[in-house]
TrEMBL record:
UniProt GO MF annotations: protochlorophyllide reductase activity; zinc ion binding
Enzyme class, broadest EC rank: oxidoreductase
Protein's UniProt name: NADPH-protochlorophyllide oxidoreductase
Organism name: Acer negundo (Box elder)
Catalytic activity annotation: chlorophyllide a + NADP(+) = protochlorophyllide a + NADPH + H(+)
């Protein structure tokens, strides 16, 4: 049978490129889990992803109800689940004020971490039941939150503190919209959410790998400087960032290339590896903003 893979946020950027790369093999059926059904349909069509190889299902990670509904729809579809790729993310580096998910959590952590956390928890049994030889749960991380790297030391640094903001509901009405209880900072919220993504995979590995045989991984795709992730950056940044990555750091990765790499599962798992910072200069500098 064909493998069955769910990819969140497959309507653009890395998610779309991965869906395309995986669907093109003819060996996989891709479930494109997207918040905007029509956009996903148009994107799939223009990428040449056919209906035989892909199904679009609605998923808005900024609503935990929507996550539950997606899981319900997926289970009712009767498809097995062999690989889950948690790829979707929001990044609000210039936001002055926090915005919130349907349940009232700060949007970046709420979407990137809490939405994916619930999705992963609810689909763990389905992954476990897969008879596919290398069943996987992959979360797309970011180099910016790894203080092992130069990029991870560019302020504002990721820092979860003592989790007091999270414990207080991640909402300014209660304590704070930031996990560590500090003042809102959109870039930091994104980095914090990615730390949570990576910690989630480590903890899932610790708790479930031996019992289930599922591989849990967090991957950094390289700097895909042209994706919609940077839509909220100032125009000058968006203009200069791609050439900076292409010609100065030479760490630029095209959407197609990153999609192929993720599709092939060939990425280096940076976060579980101690590596020499000097030899990773280009990787690190590349990731300063993403
Ligand atoms: P894009 O903005 O192109 O893709 C993000 C995707 O997430 C979009 O399809 C978007 O949907 C979707 N999304 C956003 N919010 C929600 C939501 N509430 N529910 C469901 N889907 C949602 O960015 P990238 O392709 O660059 O990002 C993909 C991943 O790669 C992210 O996890 C990002 O952190 C990571 N990454 C990217 C880097 C880069 O250089 N670009 C570097 C390091 C990591 P819609 O199409 O409707 O907007």
């Amino acid at each position: 049978r064909k493998g069955s893979v769910v990819i969140t946020g497959a309507s653009s950027g890395l998610g779309l490129a991965t869906a395309k790369a995986v669907a093109e093999t003819g060996k996989w059926h891709v479930i494109m889990a997207c918040r905007d059904f029509l956009k996903a349909e148009r994107a799939a069509k223009s990428a040449g992803i056919t209906k035989e190889n892909a199904t679009i299902m609605h998923l808005d990670l900024s609503s935990l109800d929507s996550v539950r509904q997606f899981v319900d729809t997926f289970k009712r579809s009767g498809r097995p689940l062999d690989v889950l790729v948690c790829n979707a993310a929001v990044y609000q580096p210039t936001a002055k004020e926090p915005s919130y998910t349907a349940e009232g959590f700060e949007l970046s952590v709420g979407t990137n971490h809490l939405g994916h956390f619930l999705l992963s928890r609810l689909l763990l049994d389905d992954l476990n039941q897969s008879d596919y030889p290398s069943k996987r749960l992959i979360i797309v991380g970011s180099i910016t939150c790894n203080t092992n790297t130069l990029a991870g030391n560019v302020p504002p640094k990721a820092n979860l503190g003592d989790l007091r903001g999270l414990a207080g509901g991640l909402n300014e009405l209660n304590t704070s919209s930031m996990i560590d209880g500090g003042d809102f900072d959109g870039a930091k919220a994104y980095k914090d959410s990615k730390v949570c993504n990576m910690l989630t995979m480590q903890e899932f590995h610790r708790r479930y790998h031996e019992e289930t045989g599922i591989t849990f991984a967090s991957l950094y795709p390289g700097c895909i400087a042209t994706t919609g992730l940077f839509r909220e950056q100032i125009p000058l940044f968006r203009l200069l960032f791609p050439p900076f990555q292409k010609y100065i750091t030479k760490g630029y990765v095209s959407e197609d290339e990153a999609g192929k790499r993720l599709g092939q599962g060939l990425l280096v798992i940076l976060y579980y590896t101690d590596f020499d910072i000097a030899s990773c200069w280009s990787w690190s500098l590349t990731g300063c903003f993403c």
